[in-house]
Amino acid sequence: MSLHPAGFDPLVYPLSPSWFERPHSIHGISHTRRVLIHARAIAEARDLDPDWFESVVLAVAWHDIGRTHDGREPEHGANSVAKVQRLGLAQGVGTHVLARTFFAMEHHSISDHVAVERAADLEPDHRPEPGTMLRVLWLLKDADGLDRVRIDDLDPAQLRYQESVSMVARAQRLLKEMP
Q: Does this model's pTM top 0.90?
């Protein structure tokens, strides 16, 4: 399944409440849906390769399913990866797509410099090139970061792409439209 941002509709992408411990929390389905909308917009603005976009979509859809609460939970990315595997959600997903997806999920709640180090340390035979892994991660982090408007904690200086910074007002409007 190769997705192109222009043909992707984040409003109909299937998200199951059963994936989430607390589907109606601030890290539940509504949050994930808004992050999908932000991710599509950023990917389209950056002309992201469809193969990489598939990794972004999956990473966004699954990035918070391992959360057990809404507080600081740095391990929730790794917990989300484990939950995807436990639920069998990744069946049929290509190896490189899944490698980028899991890397982005696992590292979306840690500092950028640690993620860069970990991408460089991965075995070359078991991953796509580090730059691709990081592009997927940065896009997930920016899309997720834009939805920090829901907790009044968005710092545009923390966004990685200029396209993301230009979407701050849009993120505020989207939250009003889709609380």
A: yes
Give per-residue pLDDT as tens, 28-83.
999 999 999 999 999 999 988 888 999 999 999 999 999 999 888 889 999 999 99
Q: Alpha-carbon distance 9 to 25, whole Å? A: 23
Q: What sign has the CA pseudo-torsion 103, 105, 108, 109?
A: negative
Structure tokens at 69: 């609460």
Domain that includes residue 82, residue range: 19-177
What is the C-alpha to C-alpha distance for residues 48 and 122, in angstroms, rounded to an integer? 23
User: 7 in a domain, yes or no?
Assistant: no
| Residues 154, 145 contacting (CB under 8 angstroms) | yes
The sign one gets for the Cα dihedral 73, 162, 46, 117 is negative
- Helix, strand, coil percentages for the chain (3-state, nearest 5): 65, 0, 35
Residue 2 placed within a domain? no
* Per-residue DSSP letter, 93: -
Is residue 13 assigned to a domain? no
**Number of domains present in the structure of the chain:** 1
